[in-house]
Write a structure and sequence with these properties.
By secondary structure, the chain is mainly β. The chain folds into two domains: about 1-45 and about 115-125, no CATH class; about 45-110, SH3 type barrels, CATH 2.30.30. It has helices at about 25-30, 45; strands spanning about 1-5, 10-20, 55-60, 75-80, 85-95, 95-105, 110, 120-125. A five-stranded antiparallel beta sheet has the order 6-5-4-3-7. It has a three-stranded mixed beta sheet with strand order 1-2-8.
Length: about 130
């Protein structure tokens, strides 16, 4: 079992890599993945596809919106595209006033990340 961290939100990730077939070289590669190096995978909250109505946590608030602090909570109320990238309209509540702002996916994380425990990755030889 290997341990690492999500490169987006820096939370801890525990994962196991297994070969799909019993090829010796693939089993050897699976045993070495993640030993002494950072995880090259997102946690479930950063990976999960978001939909309208999903709760999110702001990881990287825009500097021009001081009322939206880091780790602020909000709800996705709209999804649009900007040069092929998804842009999420998020609404939340700060102290006494509501806010809304547009975020790219890397700036927010799903609140209800249901997949907890060990992530299992399967290696295949193609």
């Amino acid at each position: 079992m290997a341990y690492g961290y999500c490169p987006n939100c820096r939370c801890g990730v525990r994962y196991r890599v297994s070969p799909q077939h019993r090829a010796p070289w693939l089993a050897e590669l699976a045993a070495e993945v993640g030993r002494g190096e950072a995880a090259a995978l997102l946690c479930y909250g950063c990976w999960k596809p978001l939909e309208i109505g999903d709760g999110v946590e702001v990881l990287d608030p825009p500097f021009w919106r001081p009322e939206i602090g880091g780790r602020a909570k909000g709800t996705v109320t709209g999804i649009s595209r900007d040069d092929g990238h998804a842009v999420y309209l998020v609404e939340g509540q700060a102290a006494c006033s509501p806010w809304n702002c547009r975020f790219y996916r890397t700036q927010i994380k799903a609140l209800e990340a249901a997949a907890a425990g060990t992530v299992r990755l399967i290696l295949r030889a193609d």
